[in-house]
Write the structure tokens for this entry.
Amino acid sequence: MAIVLAATGLFLYIRVGSALDRTIDQGLKARAADVAALVEQADTGLRDAPSQRGRDNGFAQVVGSQGAVIDSTPGLADRLLLSRDQLDRARRGEAFFERETGEDNVRMLAIPVAAQDQSLVVIVGTSLEPRASALADLEGQLLVGGPIALLLASIAGYLVAAAALRPVERMGERAATISAASPGRRLPVPPAEDEISRLGRRLNDMLARLEAALERERALVSNASHELRTPLALLKTEIELALDDPDSAPALAAALRSAGEETDRLTQLADDLLLLARADSGKLPLRRTRVAIGELLDAIATRFRRRATDAGRSIEVAAPTDLVVLVDRRRLEQALANLVENALRYGAGTVRLEAVAAPDALVLHVTDQGPGFPPDFLDVAFERFSRADGSRAGAGLGLAIVSAIAHAHSGTATASNASGGGADVTLTLPVRDSS
């Protein structure tokens, strides 16, 4: 603000000085025209012309062709106001000059005039003292008013800034009290539609996302603990039963088989949680190779066909035989196997694996002819430990793993219900050149 005020004052000082100079020059031109007209009439002299005597501290002088003073206003006597060089310049055309006369500075205008059968030079001038006095008064006012204006502007700026930043202070105080132990608390947002209110709303949205993430982490720990408790309890029971009858080989073998199954379940749960943790950190490793999609779908169908036949169901595959893409075969096979597993466990009728080559993408469908997904489950289908029936059967990580693998391939996973009935889970993966 000090720089702005100083620049404004300097600009005003220069502009006022320039305006005063223009006013003085215009007055000199008007006076020179009057004197020239008077000289051309030659009926009276400057000494006797009342209109030229002492007006605004002005003066006039007429110089002949030989450089002699012909006429002048009272007080100038016969002293030539211009030097020889200046006089020669004035004979060639209109010219302005400044000089000191005693303690006063004057500005003069000299113009050539042809009158009385000779070439004359008319010189008019005025004192610059009024100009200097006006500029001195302006300078004094600026030197006094500038600091006052700076002080007032600083106080006003401080008050405005304090008022504008008061909501930030309130948000800071509230932020200091928000913790994981106090969910649901938000920052106060001012009613004004400005940058502060927009910042407050965005921070509140961030807090909502953080709370949702924290809630998911709590649910993950809770559900993982529950899933781990069941196989561990079964392991302990089997071991206790084996210890109750250590001499019975059949009982010991059955206990070991059951313990092995529960160990496999624990291992699978640990692998699933590790995969999701790597996916969350963006470090899920992929080993892309050229994969024939038709052959991959046939392999998955062959793996589950006996189980489907035992349940009185069938598995169909529909895929182009020449469709080859760059994907991680093991991860993609894991995702499709999870989908087929869910279709056999919760669906009905024929399970269909279909691959479609879309522009720049590979679209994979796994459908069945069962009841489909409940409408309220579609929005949370790919969340961890979510189950459509609300039961505790299974860990509820299958669809979450499918989504993680799809995102690791820069693709998407969606769940919907087919128009003719049954669930339809779709994987859309960007196609990479496999040549």
